[in-house]
């Protein structure tokens, strides 16, 4: 039974609340993000719907000439009104980005029909996971046969796009890829990224954060275009249902929707790689930021991070947990400044 709920946030949600160094930088990032992720898809969607309506749909057989004549009749006042309308729609819809991601990930499909569809979709990924595990060769059964090697590599690639545990499977490919990427990034070090990443962000170099944000913007733009083309497809069917060959426009918008969804999956893989790279390179700075001694080896780090995750989740600690860490003091006896130390590295 599919039991995923909307209340589970993802690392993408935390990246929306990345550290803001100053108002000027925030305005610049917001301007680029707002333009690419929200304004451009809205302009394309509203422009397409406006073309259909200006061409005569749904009351008459659409005519491009009719739409061009309406375009010639546009006055400055109408252009300003349309521009303001697009901006209002964009500003109003911009906060919906996270719910749209959650929807396409499969966290929240409402109603009985949504639950049934989610169950069936999740079952399909469960079968795919079982088949991929079956196709993997045994450790002592590796074959030199090229076909067998290709089959094994393909099976491993499918597993890398799915959560490790069956109970974590989601109904969509996008959700499964993001889940795997977000959970596996900190797994080698015992880090839960939902709790650790917001605390690690201040110690990640700006150029690395810029790369992660760029990957995130690519993901969000692909998702917006996917949703916009999906709305355009539904509108095309409704407006052009009785207009014969014009219905091929609905096919075109559907293909665009499918292409944008596949692009979102590819972007999520790139985003996950960038996120994992940042964690690999700078995970020890989390100890610097907390003025704690760095662990001597990976096993010790994993044990310490288990306790740190309890701290970040505000769980109760036992005496043994509390005695696992030792704070670092500056040479003059005052508390160390880990932020300055990390920024100088």
Can you offer a commentary on this structure?
The chain has 345 residues and is an all-alpha fold. The protein has two domains: 11-107 and 170-282, no CATH class; 286-344, no CATH class. It is built from 15 helices and no strands. The protein has helices spanning 11-15, 23-54, 64-72, 76-93, 97-105, 111-135, 146-160, 173-184, 193-200, 206-240, 248-282, 285-289, 298-312, 319-322, 338-344. Helix 6 (111-135) runs antiparallel to helix 7, helix 8 runs parallel beside helix 11 and helix 10 runs antiparallel to helix 11 (248-282). The longest helix has 35 residues, at 206-240. Mean pLDDT is 84; it is low at 5-24.
